Amino acid sequence: MQAAEWARDITDTLRGEDEQGALERLARLQPFDRAEVLAHLEPADRLRLVRAMPTSLAAETLEYLEPETQYRILDHLDEPLAAALLQAMSSDTVVDLLLALHPLQAAKLKAWLPSAYRERIDTLMTFPENTAGSLATIEYIAAREGWTVQQALDHVRKVGHDAEVVSYVYVVDARGRLVRVASLRELILADPRAPLTAVGRPDVIAVRATADREEAARLLTRYDFVALPVVDDQNRLLGIITIDDIVDVIHREATEDIQRLGGSVPLAESYFKTPVPVLFRKRVGWLLTLFVAEAYTGTVLRHFEDILSRVVGLAFFIPLLIGTGGNTGSQTVSTLVRALAVGEVTFRDWLRVLARELATGTLLGTVMAAAALVRAYTLGVGPQLGPVVAVTALFIVLWASMVSAVLPLLLHRLRVDPAVVSGPFISTLVDGTGLFLYFTVAQVMLRLT
Amino acid sequence: MQAAEWARDITDTLRGEDEQGALERLARLQPFDRAEVLAHLEPADRLRLVRAMPTSLAAETLEYLEPETQYRILDHLDEPLAAALLQAMSSDTVVDLLLALHPLQAAKLKAWLPSAYRERIDTLMTFPENTAGSLATIEYIAAREGWTVQQALDHVRKVGHDAEVVSYVYVVDARGRLVRVASLRELILADPRAPLTAVGRPDVIAVRATADREEAARLLTRYDFVALPVVDDQNRLLGIITIDDIVDVIHREATEDIQRLGGSVPLAESYFKTPVPVLFRKRVGWLLTLFVAEAYTGTVLRHFEDILSRVVGLAFFIPLLIGTGGNTGSQTVSTLVRALAVGEVTFRDWLRVLARELATGTLLGTVMAAAALVRAYTLGVGPQLGPVVAVTALFIVLWASMVSAVLPLLLHRLRVDPAVVSGPFISTLVDGTGLFLYFTVAQVMLRLT
């Protein structure tokens, strides 16, 4: 842990009454690392350094701290400094902070903001968590339609300090509607006297504030932008989403899908921040549901109790056969759920997917049938059981392939997250139906009635 | 599919001999969309438009096409045009193209490049696929230590057209070593007469070319950069990695982890690009391995054949109990594998992880024991089996929690991708050991010998 070492070093420097030295060391770090160091310091030292730092440096650092820590620091500073820091922080961080606080605490902080800024923050705060609007920041650079390139560049120089991303200048009309976008590169390379309307492009790719945050991620990924404008339903510019926030979204969405595929409800926080009772709650629902679903394997087995007691050897292969079915299903489901998530596959492809999975399943089933034959032989259960187990292995693999090819696509179509068809889900489904297959095959092939 | 419609529209325009109109329509699209449209066109129309497009527009478009399509286009153009396009494309795309081609085809294309550029491409081509170096592009903006801000800005204006990212200017010394970085924003806001050494920061965060690409992703995500410099072991600047390539890496790594967790070897290509025989090969290995591992459930069952034939009712609960163990394991494993991948958990946390999972497992196990008791009662297997099944449920859940907490951490420590501890893997492991637990509990509680 480098941050802990840095923090010790800075604490020592402070103890030696060399505040200037401590500040210089901090200033040399990247904002992320600086925040880590602050998080490791004693509260009193932390406050002392935040007070002594230039406002922009302090604000930049605060952005990387957790909301609770941000509040604890802001709450202990004098109001003018705290207000200045809050205004210098990027607006998406401020929104996250305000949403994480108790309403009374949030109201206190909001009272420090100038009313125009507060209104814009209020607008951003209305967008629910999974929307594009919730990711937006208002620190973008906007220019007016009638300006020249030189005017736009002068504007960048004036407001660029506060902007989160200066790669693009968004051109709006008199009613605030987004009509054009130009990259800073295009502005610098253009003739300064040219009208702004001669630079950049008119068909701006933007996302509606109410759209899903995944839609924003999809657009940014597809077009390789660094920032994406967010507009309301009248195409008025509300803010921008920056690529670093999208990277976080991509990480979070993948985490959620993996946890769902593992058969649990996604955790809202990171692993260690999730208390044990919450871990329990996120898991117990599916575990019980699957238990109830799996319970009908008992019903199937009792239904075939007679056959089972006449040929006890059949029981030896129960875990092996249903396990193989579950494994096949888990392989297919995970591949397809991911392909759906990244848009490689859609519902309209269902027939193609089914054909591919059945073809793959036939190959896999044949191999598993051969393996089952070998296993029956080595277990020495007599010559009759081998073919039963082999035929069942083929059928179960085919059955699992079919179910796990169709279900995720169907759920996607019904706008249910296909990741709820987890490995455990498909295993459970295949277990009961697989047992039914097994004993039916046994009944027919062994001529039992 | 919007691209298909656009393509039809453009084909019609071309048929009406309005090449200029078709070009204008194409130019208005984003590069990604333009490439999609080209991919939908007839080869002859495609070539005609590429020939008529301005070089920079054509190169930008080509970058979004697949290597095979890129080659098919370049191969049909006159050498001067093809060479110009190749040089205008970003170097990481050229490297990917050259690596995807047959060596003779690659040699033909390489011969068109100026020798200095060819040498730098050759250097980039030496880095293996999963390294940071393999993602690097040489279209960055470098400035010399001795320059002023004005000189640097003039240089940006001169070479900015070719750069992939103009957000940063990298300052190198006379030996090519990376000594400083300044953002374009800092340059624009600075006094033009100031020395370059007064702008930006000296401690540049960079990644070694030989480092894992995940390390580059981690750094970019952590520090919210738009591009990351890539250096050799003497800190000489080799290239930069841009955030859009990192976004692709993050997507790909998540896909690989999900496929591994589902119990298959990750696919190298997207789902529909993977032929059925390859799907089969990626899955059959684990399926057979798990089959062999699962086969010992047969051995365990045969070992307890005597007990099983005396109390056939025990068999009814086999799928239910081992299924619940597998589900618990799958939940834990997926959560931990992801936490390891994003760096939330490391091997040093193993004791904390184990404690948390055992605590969660105790809660879950208690609930599942109660559920098992209910199920035994509803299945009407007599009053003796209920307690056996309940106690086993608790033990199996605890056992699964323990194994799935420790194994991923251990593998991570041994530098094996923890995602190989897939859901199917942990289910299989828990199946055999769980059966052993079950019959041992039955033996003890039912006093069978």
In short:
Chains A, B: It is a multi-pass membrane protein. Chain A has 449 residues and is mainly alpha-helical.
Describe the structure.
The structure is a homodimer of 449-residue chains. By secondary structure, chain A is mostly helical. In chain A, a hairpin with a 5-residue loop joins strand 5 and strand 6. The first copy, chain A, has three domains: 125 residues, MgtE N-terminal fold (Alpha Horseshoe); 102 residues, CBS-domain, CATH 3.10.580.10; 175 residues, Tetracycline Repressor, domain 2 (Orthogonal Bundle). In chain A, 47% of the residues are buried. In chain A, helix 13 packs across helix 14. Chain A contains 21 helices and six strands. The model of chain A has no long low-confidence stretch (mean pLDDT 90). In chain A, the strands form two sheets. The first copy, chain A, has a three-stranded mixed β-sheet with strand order 1-2-3. The termini of chain A are far apart. Chains A and B meet through helix 11, helix 12, helix 13, helix 14 and helix 15 of A and helix 11, helix 12, helix 13, helix 14 and helix 15 of B.
Average the pLDDT over all residues of chain A and give the rounded result: 90
Q: Kindly report the CATH topology of the largest domain in chain A.
A: Tetracycline Repressor, domain 2
Q: What structural class results from the helix and strand content of chain A? A: mainly alpha
N-to-C series of helices and strands of chain A: HHHHHHHHHHEHEEHEHEEHHHHHHHH
- Kindly report the greatest chain-chain contact and the residue count on each side: A-B, 114 and 114 residues
Helix amount of chain A: 55-70%
Give the DSSP E fraction of chain A (strand runs of 2 or more residues): 5-15%
Name the assembly state: homodimer
Transmembrane segments (chains A, B): 358-377, 389-411, 423-446
Subcellular location (chains A, B): Cell membrane; Membrane
Family (chains A, B): Belongs to the SLC41A transporter family.
Keywords (chains A, B): CBS domain, Cell membrane, Magnesium, Membrane, Metal-binding, Transmembrane, Transmembrane helix, Transport
